[in-house]
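Researcher: Go.
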Amino acid sequence: SVDPFHWYCLAQEYRSLERNDEAAKTFDKLAEMTPDYVPMFLMAGQLFEKMGKVDDARAWLDKGVAAAKKKGDSHALGELESARALLG
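Model: Structure:
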C-alpha cells in the first residue's frame, strides 16, 4: 500500500530545493494514488501559484476544500478556503 506521507515529503523536499516541476509532478502522482490526502492540496496550490499557474492553483485548492469537507477536517478547510479567497 502507498504511504501518502512519504510522497508528500518528497514533493515538499523538491519544493524546498526550488525544483518546482519535479514537485508538481510528485503532487500529481500523489493525487492519483491517494486523492483524499488532504495535506497535499494547500501545498500544491501554493506551489502552482508560485509557478504562476493560477488556474492550476485554484483547481488544487478547490479539490482540497471538497476533500477537507468530506473528511470533516475543519482546520484544513479554513486554511484552504483562506488561500482560495486570496487567489480570487
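Model: DSSP finds five helices and no strands in the chain.
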